[in-house]
Amino acid sequence: MFPELKWYYVVVAYILAPSLSFCNAYGAGLTDMNMAYNYGKVALFILAALAGKNNGVVAGLVGCGLIKAIVSISSDLMHDFKTGHLTLTSPRSMLLSQAIGTVIGCVVAPFTFFLFYKAFDVGNPDGEYKAPYAIIYRNMAILGVEGFSALPQHCLQLCYGFFALAISANLSRDLSPKNIGKYVPLPMAMAVPFLVGAYFAIDMCLGSLVVFAWHKLNSRKASLMVPAVASGLICGDGLWILPSSILALAKIRPPICMSFQATN
Questions:
Q1: What's residue 229's pLDDT?
Q2: Which strand (E) or helix (H) includes residue 102?
Q3: Nearest C-alpha neighbor of 135 from the set 238, 77, 57, 188
Q4: Residue 43, Cβ neighbours under 10 Å: how many?
Q5: pLDDT of residue 143
Q6: Which of 25, 160, 232, 239 could form a disulfide with 74 if both were Cys (CB 3.0 to 4.6 A apart)?
């Protein structure tokens, strides 16, 4: 169906998938957030650059969808395990159920896709199924084909710096004594606010303070009720929505702005 996606690109995607799936499962366990779309974007840029200008856009888009689908399963499995832990469900039963559901999805999902693809005008801006994200991902694939020169100024330098910071933080946390290493921040948890916004860090900070105080006041009740209370607080816009609304009513803008601009 997509001749631009050569078989060796699929091999590259499956080589990248296990490590990205592990990272996504680890991040979902820490933050309860599925970052499969962001890992798919990484694969999009890599495959688009490998395929070149002639086939890079289509190859990058299909490879992105392939990686996203594979990586997303790891996050779903982590969420199932966390739910099973709270409900005292057997982990083996959860894993077996996930495997059976994945096998069924391999048959049902293609039929569902072709049903929508053939029956409806998918992608038409004036139709019912506009697919607005298709334009966004296509533009990202075009950037990937153009190479590093299309990225914002100092983008690669920032990536190198934060990558080195993450590696050094992980090494210092793993190699330091436990009484010292526990105070080293987790790079995976630090990365989430950079993607979804600083409000996430504020929500997590306030929630951690509540959990800490609750354990000090009544440790037994806190251990039982914290997951349920946290689930209720996660639903909706989070704790930051209240101060954010107050700042918006007061017409106070954030104190820090950052933009990438070309310099002469």
A1: 81
A2: helix 91-119
A3: 57
A4: 25
A5: 84
A6: 25
Query: In which element (H, E) is residue 151 found?
Result: none
- Rounded Cα distance between 264 and 256, Å, is 24
Beta strands in the chain (DSSP E): none
Residue 209 neighbours by CB under 8 Å, 6+ apart = none
**DSSP readout, 9-34?**
HHHHHHHHHHHHHHHHHHHHHHHS--
- How many Cα atoms sit within 13 Å of 69 on the Cβ side? 13
Q: Which of 22-26, 49-53, 151-155, 238-242 has the lowest mean pLDDT?
A: 238-242
Q: What is the pLDDT of residue 161?
A: 92
User: What would the two tokens of residue 244 be?
Assistant: 């954010």
Find out whether 40 and 23 touch, Cβ atoms under 8 Å.
Answer: no
pLDDT higher at 177 or 262? 177
Residue 248 C-alpha from the chain's centroid: 28
Structure tokens belonging to residue 124: 């038409």
Question: Can you read off the two tokens belonging to residue 259?
Answer: 């933009």
Name the average pLDDT for the chain: 82
Residues in CB range of 41: below 8 A, 6 or more apart: 64, 140
So what's the pLDDT on residue 236?
A: 60
Question: Which residues, including other chains, have CB under 8 Å from residue 64's CB and lie 6 or more apart?
Answer: 40, 41, 43, 44, 47, 137, 141
